[in-house]
Amino acid sequence: MARRKCPSCGKVDEILVIHDKDSVIKKCPNCGYVYITYRAAMKPS
Ligand SMILES: [Zn+2]
Question: How far is the CA of 44 from the centre of ligand 1 (A)?
Answer without folding.
Answer: 28
